Amino acid sequence: MRIQLIRPLPRTQPGGPPVYLTRRPAARLSVLATVFLLIASVTTNARDIIHKGDIVVVPLSGEVSPSLLMFLRREVKAAESSGAAAIILEMNTYGGRLDSAEEMTSVLNHATIPTYTFINSNAGSAGALIALATQHIYMAPVSAIGAAAPVLSTGEDLPLTEREKTVSYWSALIRSSAIKNGHNPDIGEAFISKEKEIKIGDRMIHPKGTLLTLNAQEATEKINGKPLLADGIADSIADLAQKAALKGNVVSLNPSGFEQLALWITALAPLLLLGGIIGAYLEFKIPGATLPGIIAAICFALFFLGHYLAGLAGWEVVILFVVGFALVIIEILFFAHSTIVFGVVGVLLMLASLLWAMIDRYPGETFFPTGRTLALPLLNLFIAITAAAIVIVILARYLPRTSFYRRFALMTSNPPGPSLAGAPREFTTALALSPGMEGISVSILRPSGKARFADHVVDVITEGEFIASETPVKIIQTDGMRVVVKSITA
Question: How many angstroms separate the Cα of 252 from the Cα of each of 45, 90, 231?
């Protein structure tokens, strides 16, 4: 019987050479880069809007929430990085979540440029606490600040023990924030505690028994030559800038509408990292596949986009990630099985970029963070890597055994050239292909490719390992046209 050598079926283009269903590894970099570039094109970087010496106006209106925190953090960092002269919070809020207010006060207390609050109508509850974290307060003629007692989300009072603990903690936090920014700490404490009495000299400003709330005229009243709380009354931002002797262009920034999306993305960071790692693994496991690589690119892109919108990272972390990814591609393309330097450095750069993106680092701080700032990102990264390792072990063991995987890998991953792919079963039987038969790989098996047995090139597949070209291999299983091999170890 004469054995006919069958070529893999190519896709052809009119007037050109055959085009096979094999994708080169470099295409993975282009998929990832394309997604990042598309996202970069639809997001506006505040640093491009703000110029050195500008006065940046950040509106804080509506409920104090995690999304408002993300907006504030992003704009404060952008203002500082761009060399803005001052930040003005244009505030109109009745309050909101205390945990978000705490984070927002931390953002403002980290600021290295002058901070102002313009209370345009209301700075109630959590808004009053945020205003005290700025160095200067101005109020519209009809406006109020105060009444910051903690309550449940339903509006009901906290249980007695919990209320006492919350008020005690927040009283200490407000006092320290007020002192840092040059405000009377007793005023801040009276906003949140009914038991706080305020006296300046012999004058009773506020008796205990009720929460303190100040209107514009009361807050700006001078006692012993110093305003009670606010520096002055202003009709507008322009009026405030004139009275505060602020010079520079006024630049107003508004929420992009993506802050709520950023909230969900940052909360799902471990899952996005898991999806990205698993997708990347499957992309390299099945070289001809497209979907896993696209999923990986989308997961990593969403991860970086969410942390960018949350004010945690800039596009420099994306560049670091892409550089690391490019080094891994270079390792696979040019230095496979000869050196691991490029691959190791690339992986370390990618991990560093992922960790860096999750760290809430402010301009002027030390390069290496500590405490909770570092602990939570490390935990998220550890969870993602551990979960990915478990899933990859399971996939490496069971995925190559599935008929879908074998069919897909054999059809899409083999390099062009004569082989017995698609030949009738009796052809392979005539070659006496059986477990234990030795040959040599004629292409890189990742995990499928070609090997030579008895002067015949045969399509083969490994159990998941990558085998370099010109490596001795041995058949460990045959099943019709499926030939499973492994490398012959010394």
Answer: 14, 10, 22
Residue range of the domain that includes 181: 46-252
d(CA 304, CA 294): 15
Cα separation, 122 vs 219, whole angstroms: 13
Helices and strands, number each (H, E), in the chain: 17, 19
Residues with Cβ within 8 Å of residue 435, at least 6 apart in sequence:
475, 476, 477, 478
C-alpha 333/C-alpha 340 separation (Å) is: 12
Say if residues 80 and 110 touch (Cβ distance below 8 Å). Answer: no
- Higher-pLDDT residue of 457 and 144 is 144
In this prediction, residues 42-58 reach a mean pLDDT of 74
Residue 106 exposed, middle or buried by CB count within 10 Å (0-12, 13-18, 19+): middle
d(CA 359, CA 372): 10
Q: What is the pLDDT of residues 87-136, one digit of tens each?
A: 999 999 988 888 888 889 998 998 999 999 999 989 988 899 999 999 99
Structure tokens at 169: 């903690």
DSSP 424-454: -HHHHHHTT--TT-EEEESS-BSSEEEEEET
198 and 74, same domain (yes or no):
yes
267-281 tens-digit pLDDT = 777 888 888 888 888
Sign of the dihedral through C-alpha 419, 422, 424, 426: positive
Tokens 């891994």 label which residue?
Answer: 328
> What's the CA angle centered on 256, arms 254 and 257, to 5 degrees?
120
Whether residue 473 lies inside any domain: the answer is yes
234 and 175, same domain (yes or no): yes
Q: Report helix, strand or coil for 31.
A: helix
Residue 2 lies in a domain: no
Least confident of 38-42, 75-79, 389-393: 38-42
Decide if 5 is inside a domain: no
pLDDT of residue 365: 54
Is 25 within 8 Å of 219 (Cβ atoms)?
no
DSSP helix, strand, coil percent of the chain (3-state; round to 5):
45, 20, 35
pTM confidence score: 0.58
| CA separation for the pair 417, 186 (Å, rounded) | 84
Host H or E run for residue 243: helix 237-243
Nearest to 143 by CA among 216, 250, 46: 216
Question: How many domains would you assign to the chain?
Answer: 3
The overall average pLDDT reported for the chain is 77
Assess whether 203 and 329 both reside in one domain: no
For the segment 167-186, what is each residue's pLDDT rounded down to a tens digit?
888 888 899 999 999 999 99
- Element spanning 301, H or E: helix 291-309
The tens digit of pLDDT for each residue in 159-170 reads 877 778 888 888
Kindly state the DSSP code that residue 252 receives in the 8-state scheme.
Answer: E
291-325, pLDDT tens digit by residue?
A: 777 888 888 888 887 776 666 666 678 788 888 88
